[in-house]
């Protein structure tokens, strides 16, 4: 397995930004949880890119990833590896993180996978 941290919940989308001083909290929490996922405290593009590349090599032939790539909104305009990188963006990280958690912990993947695929269909 990788040195990813998958036992936390990505909750950045659950934050409300009702008051002016709360604007930006979702984005800040996303960045924190993104780094948590990669087991890092500070952003280092080279290390993150290496970890994403390594993870892709580990799971590129797994059925759940094939389904994700096949249903991704950019499937006709991007290479698989680039599509994979989009799964760590704000829109998808929480859902893809859940898929990874289930996969690496040998848990049923149907529900988290379907949740991610449903987001693709809504785009």
Structural commentary:
The protein is an all-alpha fold and 123 residues long. It has a domain at 44-122. The protein is built from six helices and no strands. The protein has helices spanning 25-37, 45-59, 63-71, 80-86, 93-104, 110-122. α3 runs parallel beside α6 and α5 (93-104) runs antiparallel to α6 (110-122). The longest helix is centred in the middle third of the chain and has 15 residues, at 45-59.
The oligomeric state is single chain
- In whole angstroms, the N-to-C terminal distance is 32 Å
Question: How helical, in percent, are the residues?
Answer: 55-70%
| Helix-strand makeup class | mainly alpha
Mean pLDDT equals 95
> Major sheet: size, sense and barrel closure?
none
Number of strands: 0
Number of helices: 6
Low-confidence stretches: none
Order of helices and strands: HHHHHH
Shape: globular
CA-based gyration radius: 15 Å
The percentage of residues in β strands lies in under 5%
């Amino acid at each position: 397995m990788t040195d990813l941290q998958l036992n936390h919940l990505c909750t950045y989308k659950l934050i409300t930004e009702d008051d002016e001083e709360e604007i930006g909290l979702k984005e800040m929490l996303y960045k924190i949880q993104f780094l948590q996922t990669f087991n890092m405290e500070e952003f280092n593009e080279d290390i993150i890119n290496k970890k994403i590349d390594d993870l892709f090599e580990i799971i590129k032939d797994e059925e759940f990833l094939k389904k994700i790539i096949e249903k991704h909104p950019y499937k006709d305009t991007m290479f698989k590896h680039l599509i994979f990188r989009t799964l760590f963006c704000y829109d998808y990280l929480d859902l893809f993180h859940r898929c990874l958690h289930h996969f690496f912990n040998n848990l049923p993947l149907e529900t988290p996978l379907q949740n991610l695929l449903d987001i693709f269909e809504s785009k």
